[in-house]
Amino acid sequence: MPIFLKPSLSNHTRPRSRFSLQALRFASGLSATIGARACTAVPCGSLSLPYTSSATPQPLPPANHRRRAAACWASLMAAHLLLALGVAAQSATTTTTDTAMLGNTTIKFVSTTAGPQAGVQFLHVHQNEATAVTAAHAMLARAKKGQFVTWQCQQDRYVQFSLNGQTFKFDPNRIYTDAGATATLKSNGPFTPQALAALRTVAQRFASQYANGKRLVVALHNNTDAGGLTINSYAKNGDYAAEAEAVNISKKWDEDDFFYTTNRHLFQYFAQKGFNIVLQNNATVTDDGSLSVYAAKNGIHYLNVEAQHGHLKQQQKMLQAVQQLIAEQYR
Ligand SMILES: [Zn+2]
Fold first, then answer.
1. Ligand 1 center–CA 125 separation, angstroms
2. How far is the CA of 308 from the centre of ligand 1 (A)?
3. Nearest in space to 307 (alpha carbons), one of 85, 53, 134
4. Hey, which CATH number is domain 94-329, 3.30.420, 2.60.40, 3.40.630, 2.30.30?
């Protein structure tokens, strides 16, 4: 059975005051180090010595020494203040990590949080899709709100784990139903009921923490140019036409850059803005265990922001439109 460890840092609810106590404590520690270095350059090592607890009164140090001492304290306080400001700026986002064990494999769910955005979760499950991660972090920095969680494991789309002497492999976007998890294990190697149970436990943990109870889940993916999945795959006569209830194809956008949703209202919203978008046919969609299928079964609005590898600007523009949607309709 998988073993879950506690989050390494539970600061989801920590108030992020600009001059938080933690920031000042951290800055104090750092500035003490830097202050000591600065004082080595300007010899003021006797600063703490003039008024000792000795019974014999000590003479005052010479005037030039006192001036040096004052300058040293001033520089130390300035360093202290600058570091406090610097730490406050860094704390614009916080990073937390949840860890799950699957057989012998450690899976990290790394969350970056820029600020409260109730009921909305951005997520990413294919670690090799790096453009999406860069786009998400840029979005958080710009919006100053939202939370983005990403799977970190073996730098690949797929994850492998060993259990009872056998090695299993799965796609992290095919594990949110029993049927999907069974299929992804079988199509990537051996299958045992024990491996399925362990995998489903991790999937349920991820879904319950990052999807259940949300009003909107925004997944980020990247695809490859020339072939594979495009907006045209869902058009009439496309490979996945049967999975789609409606498709809006835009001449302004590359066929690899498109939204995919489970919600008709979201489909209309982005279609009217001239984006490529697919509306999943929730009644007939194949149960492949993907998050879009899970979201449709559980009444969660789901939006996939899919862009070609390297189409950073395009994916950022799409995320900007998502933030506008959230500001208008998910406040
Ligand atoms: Zn993906």
1. 7
2. 10
3. 134
4. 3.40.630
Residues 108 and 151 sit within 8 Å (Cβ to Cβ): yes
pLDDT digit string (tens) for 243-295? Answer: 999 999 999 999 999 999 999 999 999 999 999 999 999 999 999 999 999 99
95 DSSP β-pair partners? 112
Query: Using one digit for the tens of pLDDT, what is the confidence trace for 198-218?
Result: 999 999 999 999 999 999 999
- CA distance linking residue 117 with residue 322, whole number of Å: 13
155 alpha-carbon distance from chain centroid: 15
Which residues have CB less than 5 Å away from ligand 1 (the ion)?
126, 129, 221
Residue 134 Cα to ligand 1 middle (Å):
14
The span from the CA of 25 to the CA of 215, in Å, is 37
Amino acid at 104: N
Per the listing, tokens 């797929």 go with 158
Task: Output the pTM of the full model.
Answer: 0.74
